[in-house]
Amino acid sequence: MSPQQPDANPSEKLSRYEPEVREAYARYRETGDVDAVQIVIIAMVREHLPKPSDAPITDEQKLVEDLGYDSLAVAEVVFAIEDTFGLRIETSEIMQISTVGSLKEFIAKKLGPKNE
Amino acid sequence: MSEARVMPTDKKGRRRVVISGAGFITPIGNDWAGVASSLREGRHGFERVEFFGNPNVPVKVAGTVKDFVVESMNWRDWKWPARYEIARETLRGLAPHGVYAICAIDQAAEHAGLARGALANDDATGLYCASAGSAMMLHGHLGQMDRTRGERGNPMGVVSSISGTLNFNLAAHYKITGSVCGFVSACASGSHALGYACDDIRLGRLNRAVVVAGEELNAETLLPFAAMRALSPQSDPNVASRPFDTARDGFVGAGGAVALILEDAETAAARGARALAEIAGWGQAADGHSVAMSHPEGRGLANAMKRALSDAGADAGEIDYINAHGTSTPVGDRAEALAIKTVFDTNKKQPRISSTKALTGHPLSLAGAMETAFCVLAMNEGFIPGNPHLVNTDPVCEGLDLPRETLNERPRLVLNNSSGFGGSNVCHVLRAVG
Known about the structure:
Chain A is mainly α. Chain A has helices at 19-31, 34-47, 71-85, 91-94, 100-111. Chain A has a single domain (10-110), classed as Orthogonal Bundle (Non-ribosomal Peptide Synthetase Peptidyl Carrier Protein, Chain A), CATH 1.10.1200. Chain A contains five helices and no strands. In chain A, helix 1 runs antiparallel to helix 2 (34-47) and helix 2 crosses helix 5 (100-111). The longest helix of chain A has 15 residues, at 71-85. Chain B is an alpha/beta fold. Chain B has a single domain, classed as 3-Layer(aba) Sandwich (Peroxisomal Thiolase, Chain A, domain 1). Chain B is built from twelve helices and twelve strands. Chain B has helices at residues 32-41, 88-91, 96-111, 135-147, 165-174, 189-202, 219-227, 265-270, 299-312, 330-343, 357-360, 367-381; strands at residues 17-25, 46-48, 61-63, 125-130, 179-183, 208-215, 256-264, 277-286, 321-323, 352-354, 413-420, 424-432. The model of chain B has no long low-confidence stretch (mean pLDDT 96). At the A-B interface, helix 3 of A face loops of B.
């Protein structure tokens, strides 16, 4: 099965995010800038925290143990990432992700160096 | 603390069940005082509506819920009164009527004098929900499934849409550990939830129950009833809902949620809670007749009334007030009038009868719980709601006492009727306390 294509107008999906997140997403779309993807991923991880927090999110933090994610929240953030980046992430792949860093790394690898 | 005491057991030796709190999110008010004012003054909660921006849709009026914004499928767009706190971890799985329901439960718990968290983890509090689910959320989620040919689905799609959505979410939100269940008997659902909650307390399975019923008002919920020709096509909010009037032409849709706190009388008394009313008895019976139409003589409803009276150990002649199901449909109101005549001797003292759907419209799964709460309110505020939109009473109602104006009489023994699709009829008898 082929992966989903990103929406033609993704700005609607990210309309609730801060301007710098939307700009980062636009930059990724134009240049494939992997650093820009990281900004979007962190914003999405924050957006799906079951208990909202402004505390910094670091690569070492575990989604479940440190950030309070439950399995539904993990599914939700993966769903949002799939939608935004036009990816397909298998359940078996989700099981391998435990930290924020491993999520970022996994998405970067999925997207490839230039996702043009 | 009330001076009025309720004996711990009834004549049959069963634990008595009292209502100690009520919470309202309804078209005619979002708290006790607002609802009391609307009921007493005969003020309806209808507004003009237009679905799909299409003036050709034959539904022009509805019983809207005020002070909430829940039209979007995305909870991030929703707004509700600031006094209610709903955490993100709860919101993510809710349907729009779940928001109403949480506000109603928080209000009812506060009304009952229960501290935040008092419902949680006690193994003695149960949750009884009435909801048909969210057609809007289901539509949206299945639309996505169709568009992606089955490859994509929202992780919260199931719990935010199917008919158990209230049970799933509210049990988790309030950390209910006594029991949790849901009822889907259409317009009798709220009354079923109330009845079975009452029985579980009577049987000693629980000491307390939260009964909550909710319904959304949107195109997905309401317009399918237009296809059945069940809705009033009227555009004037003052005449659209006219239960028992000769010119009635269908029901007016409505949304909202109502919650009731039920307790066994001893549990309520032990914590100094004020009993607002006692659930003296309930009964149910089926029509065995049609998928959607009432039995022409209201056979099942009459049996349900008789069973409720018998369960309460009350004679028909003792009933002061009947809150009728009275949805304003030609067939349903006629059947109910005939059923009441079967049970109540028109040559003897008659109970006052009104349908408060003249003011609220018909909120489907919510109706039975909402109208029970209205009865509790009327018993405590000392009035009987009238039938303000009744102009020409249907001759089938001859001999029945349908006052147009609000009566300043305190009803002490009240019967509340509900009927749902498939001929499901449920009635409750409520007794005033004090």
